[in-house]
Specification:
Layout lengths: L6 H10 L1 H7 L19 H16 L6 E5 L5 H10 L2 E6 L2 H13 L8 E5 L12 E7 L8 H11 E13 L7 H8 L10 H10 L3 E7 L1 H21 L3 H22 L4 E8 L7
Parallel strand pairs: 1-2, 1-4, 2-3, 4-5
Antiparallel strand pairs: 5-7, 6-7
Helix pairs in contact: 7-10, 9-10
Amino acid sequence: MTHAYTEQEVEEFFDETLQNYLGFWDSDGVLHTGYFAAETDTDYPAAAERTSTVLAADAGIDASSFVLDVGCGCGNFLTYLAGQFGCRGEGLDLSKERIKFAQRRLVEGGNGQRLEIGFRHGSVTQLPYEQGTFSHVVSQDALFLVPDKPRSHAEIYRVLRPGGIFALSDFLQPTEEIGQLAREHVYDRVRWSGGYSLSGYVAALEAAGFDVIPARDLGRHIKRTYQVLGVMARDRAAITTVATARDWMLAFARSCAEIEAAIGRGEFGWGMITARKPPGAMS
């Protein structure tokens, strides 16, 4: 039976697992799916950065933009946008620990560049911003976890200016029927109750009032992500002397194999969507 996870359960999971993710993936907290250059590409950090580049281009971010990153995690995407384009921004995440990490990195950040961004703890279902605050809302692989997805879409719509852009990458549930292995290794593993197919996502955003521009299925990139991460996990486990860390990496490697199988069965996917709040919209 499918468990309907609450926001509190999601928050607790991501608070508790932050150090595991930082230790395995990247000490800077790069935790999202990679956009790979080719089927043989194995450079995960470059692929993860390419995801940010592609999504920023889809959104049309520039120096005049005021950006809200919902589900910002450790703050990497917003930091990248501010550094690359000189935009202003706010990052919001359900995990207190990830927000603390993002705030600490912002204070400790080097290279002399002062970024006009900030981070705060909160829920996308109750955004602490006035109507029409932002020119852009972005999100990377986060909104799939929100239990009340229509409410999150309504709140994003509310805080966008008329004509504003909502650009996101997110995990997809391409089929209604999910097998036990996919439920265990894909969904329950990260406290995900269930989500949309790509067409279902488009329909949900249109129901919230958005005009959807492009929507792209990126299944081959998520498949490559977990192929590469599975190899990384096994390689790192082989040289790790701390038993608990080694066990976590080996368990993650096994999950990567099951995740790849779930992708092949059509039980898990990934996509990018860009939508616009109509220029004449009042709320």
